[in-house]
């Protein structure tokens, strides 16, 4: 039996049975996706964390980046087009 950790995750067994193939991951398990921090060389596009409820967006390094409930990662241009304002001017 696999112990339940948190509400939606399960800890997989670490020891495999010799001679048996590895068990497939259980359905319904979720892992948090890392928050992207830049788009690379796509014309200088800057990824920000937009929070529509607060009408604000945050840059990488801000305390609230990736942490506000209801927020999502977007390009700075999209945030401005959606009426969001920078929390900290850069």
Could you explain the architecture of this structure?
With 90 residues, the chain is mostly beta strands. Helix content is 7%, strand content 20%. The chain has one helix at 76-81, and strands at 4-5, 9-10, 47-51, 56-58, 72-75, 85-86. Strands 5-3-4-6 form a four-stranded mixed beta sheet. A two-stranded antiparallel sheet has the order 1-2. A hairpin with a 3-residue loop joins strand 1 (4-5) and strand 2. It is elongated. Residues 6-14 have low confidence and may be disordered.
Order of strands across the main sheet: 5-3-4-6
Q: Percentage of helical residues?
A: under 10%
Spans of 5+ residues with little confidence (pLDDT < 50)?
6-14
Global mean pLDDT: 74
Largest sheet: number of strands, sense, barrel closure:
4 strands, mixed
What structural category arises from helix and sheet content?
Answer: mainly beta
Beta strands, count: 6
Beta-strand portion reads 15-25%
Helix-strand topology string: EEEEEHE
What count of helical segments does DSSP give? 1
- Rounded Rg: 19 Å
Gap between N and C termini: 51 Å
**Globular, elongated, flat, extended or rod-shaped: what is the shape?**
elongated
């Amino acid at each position: 039996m696999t112990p339940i950790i948190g509400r939606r995750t399960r800890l997989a067994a670490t020891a495999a049975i010799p001679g048996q193939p590895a068990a497939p991951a259980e359905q319904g398990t979720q892992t948090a996706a890392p928050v992207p921090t830049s788009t690379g060389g796509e014309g200088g596009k800057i990824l920000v964390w937009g929070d529509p409820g607060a009408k604000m967006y945050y840059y990488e390094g801000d305390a609230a980046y990736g942490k506000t409930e209801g927020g999502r990662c977007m390009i700075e241009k999209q945030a401005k087009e959606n009426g969001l304002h920078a929390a900290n001017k850069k």
